[in-house]
Amino acid sequence: MYPRAGSLLMAAVLGALLPGCSLKDRQPPADEQLRAIYTSEWKWRIEQLPENEDGTLPIADHLPKVDPATQAMRLKYWQDTLRRVDAIPRESLSPKEQVNDDIYREQLAVLIARQRFRDFEMPANSDSSFWTDIGYTARHPFRTLTDYEHWIAQMRDIPRYFREQMDEMRAGAKRGFTPPRVTMAGRDTSITAVTEATAEKSLFYTPFRDMPGIPPAKQASLRAQALQVIAEVVQPAYAELLHFMRNEYVPAMRTTLAATDLPDGRNYYRAKIREFTTLDMDPEAIHRLGVNVKSSGCTRRWSRPCTRPASPAISTPFSSSCAVMRASMPAPRRSC
């Protein structure tokens, strides 16, 4: 096998040197350089923040680190990555990679802004929270023995993870960076759903109710471990979180509603506008735009549908970023 692979590689190299071969068939060095950057960064990112909502990644054996030193490291990493991207002249890229370059710069800008504004100090709101996000993993299909073992290891990591999150929330509350108190009313029910359930009926035990492909003896062992970890590790961690929310965090939440009331609120709000719309505009300007479009009775449609970027290597980090991708599309056409 290896001699054949070596022959094919040599044939490819020699073919590239034959007279008459078009340079257009070769990828520009800048393409390879950019692709190496975003491929490496994406691998690093999913190691740092192993989100797995669609269940396509293996079950991780730990939860992310969210302490201040780690957050500072992530900011520096993304800043350094953006500097490397900035060093590649856009005109040296192929048209396909120019699109990826445009999209990737937008995404890096968002990641850096989140770190600069310390979004991680507000890891819970009326829509989502770090303690409910963990439950998504329990609903995923477990395929291997390692998945079950990693899930038990991940549950063991919950106390450390929660304490780091609570420390960040304390830092946020100290500077007035919290959700509006009124929006968090009743959110503790998602915590008591864990503390008040028996281990057998807990969401965390879901993967162990049906364990296809696992030998019966191993099933019994894993179920026993899971029940013990849920009762002795997971539920006490949620009880500690519940006490923190009810007695410390919620009373310290702000009573205002506007994002502009947050520290550096106007700049924070503008950063969120850019994140969710890809438009670098003031809130007032966006409001005027919406009013004008609505009052004109004119509808807009994009000249082509929102699809993944052309490069397969970069499609994974951007597959759900339709709003970002529209930034690289032609201007919308009016249909009045």
Descriptive notes:
- The protein is an all-alpha fold.
- It starts with a helix and ends with a strand.
- A two-stranded antiparallel ribbon has the order 1-2.
- It has helices at 2-17, 29-48, 68-86, 95-116, 130-138, 145-156, 158-174, 189-195, 216-252, 265-277, 283-296, 312-318, 322-325, and strands spanning 299-301, 333-335.
- 59% of the residues lie in helices and 2% in strands.
- It folds into 2 domains: 27-117 and 265-329, no CATH class; 122-263, no CATH class.
Query: What distance separates the N and C termini?
Result: 63 Å
Q: What is the count of β-strands?
A: 2
Q: Give the overall silhouette.
A: globular
Provide the helix percentage. 55-70%
Structural class: mainly alpha
Any idea how many domains? Answer: 2
Q: Give a quick account of the main beta sheet: strands, pairing sense, barrel closure.
A: 2 strands, antiparallel
Task: Outline the low-pLDDT stretches.
Answer: 1-23, 301-336
Order of helices and strands: HHHHHHHHHHHEHHE
Query: What's the total helix number?
Result: 13
Overall pLDDT: 85
Rg over CA atoms:
25 Å
Oligomer state equals single chain
Summarize this structure as a short list of keywords or feature phrases.
two-stranded antiparallel sheet; mainly alpha; single chain; disordered N terminus; 336 residues; 2% strand; 59% helix; 13 helices; disordered C terminus; 2 domains
What is the secondary structure topology, with strand pairs?
Layout lengths: L1 H16 L11 H20 L19 H19 L8 H22 L13 H9 L6 H12 L1 H17 L14 H7 L20 H37 L12 H13 L5 H14 L2 E3 L10 H7 L3 H4 L7 E3 L1
Antiparallel strand pairs: 1-2
